[in-house]
Amino acid sequence: MEPSIEQQILEQFKKAGKILIVLPENLNVDALSAGLALRLFLLKQQKEVSIASSSLVPLQLRFLPGAETVQNRLTQGKSLVVSINTTVKKLEEISYQKTPQAVQIYLKSQADEFEQQDISFSKETAPLDLIVALGGKSLESFGKIFEQATDRFFETPKINIDCQAANEYFGAINLVDITATSVSEILVELMQKYEEQLIDEDIATCLLSGIIEKTSSFQHVQTTPRAFLKASELVALGGRQQEVVKNIFKTKSLPLLKLWGRALARLKLIENLPVVYAPLGLMDFEKAEAGSAEIFPALKELVNNLNGNKIFALIFEIQKNQIDLQMAVHEQIQVEKLLVAFPGATQSAMGIGDLRLLEYRFAEQSLEEAEKFFEQAIKTAIA
User: Fold this and answer.
1) For a pLDDT cut of 90, what percent of the chain falls above it?
2) Is 323 helix (H, G, I), strand (E, B) or coil?
3) Are both 145 and 33 inside the same structural domain?
4) Do residues 87 and 213 share a domain?
5) Whole-model pTM?
6) Number of folded domains in the chain?
7) How far is CA 357 from CA 211, 237, 313, 354, in A?
8) How far is CA 313 from CA 72, 214, 280, 350, in A?
9) Whole domain around residue 323: which residue ranges?
10) What is the b/e burial string over 252-281, where b = at least 16 CB atoms within 10 angstroms of the residue's CB?
C-alpha cells in the first residue's frame, strides 16, 4: 500500500541531514510560528536546520523561541569555483603559485592549450537535502528568498505545507489541508504522528501562537472544534498561552503604530458605499520603518477601530512598481462578485473576525491608477 502524505514527509525528515525552512515574503504569525516550531523539532533529531524569510520578524513576535535565527537571505558557500571544460581538451596537470599580491593558477592540457572560453567561474552553493515551504501558495510567495536562489529551489526536493485553497502544489510532496485553520494546526498533527514526546514547551508555545492568532483567539467564525482540541493539547504540553496572548494581542510595535497612523491620515471613503481604504506608498513604509509584516496587522487595526463598514482595504507599494491590495470583506458582501471585479484575486485562509481576506496584485499600474481601478471595481461589484 502506498504510504500516506504524512508518512512520506516523515520519511524525508529522517533521510535529510541539511534542511531549509522557508517562510512567505508577506510574513504572518502562523507561518513564522510554524516554521520556528518545526526548526526546534528537527533540531532535536540532530538535523542541521536553517530558516529564512525575506521579511524581518516584527518586534512583537521576537518573544517566540528561535525568532532571532530567521535569516533574510540564504547563505552561500565561501569558495569561488573555477570550472574547466575537459570534454575536448584533457587536463594533465594543475598547479599554483602564491605571491603577496596574487595567486596564479596553471592549467596544463594533454594536447591543445586551454583558452579563456574553456574556463568559467561560479560561487559555491551550500548543498541542501530538503526544503520545507510553509504557508506559501506558490514559489513566488517566498519573494527574494526564491528569486535569489531559484536553482537551489528547483534542484532540491521540496515539501509544501499549507492551508490555502489557492495553493499551486509546487512541492514534490504537498500537504495542503484547506480544512485546517492554520499551518500550525497541520504541524501539530504531523508531529504527533511522528514523535509527540519531542514537543516541548517552546515548540508548543510556537504552534499555539499560530493557532491563536489565526483564529483571532478562537473568536473567528471559522474556528473549528479541531482547532480548539489541538490548542488544548498544546497547553497541556506546556504551551504558554498567556505569554502568547500578551505579545500578539496586547502589544503593538512602534512601526505598526506608525503605519496605522499613516493609513488613518490617508483614509478615503467611496461615496454611498460602506467601503474605506487607504493608499500607502513607498515613503509611508520608509517613514514608519515598517515592512510587509505590518500590513495585515495595520488592516486589522482599521477593521477593529472603524465600525459600520463592510469592506476595509489597504492599497500599498512596498516595492517599487509593485502595487498590492489587501481587503477585508464582511460576510454580507458577495465575494464571488469581487473576484470577478478583481481578476486573479485570491481569498486568503486568514481572516479578521468574521471578515474574509482577499489579496490582489495590480498589473503595471501606479498607486494613483490602482486607486482609480479599485474604486471602479468596487462600484461595479457592490453598487
Assistant:
1) 55
2) strand
3) yes
4) no
5) 0.65
6) 3
7) 17, 32, 9, 10
8) 28, 19, 11, 15
9) 254-382
10) bbebbbbbbebbeeeeeebeebebbbbbbb
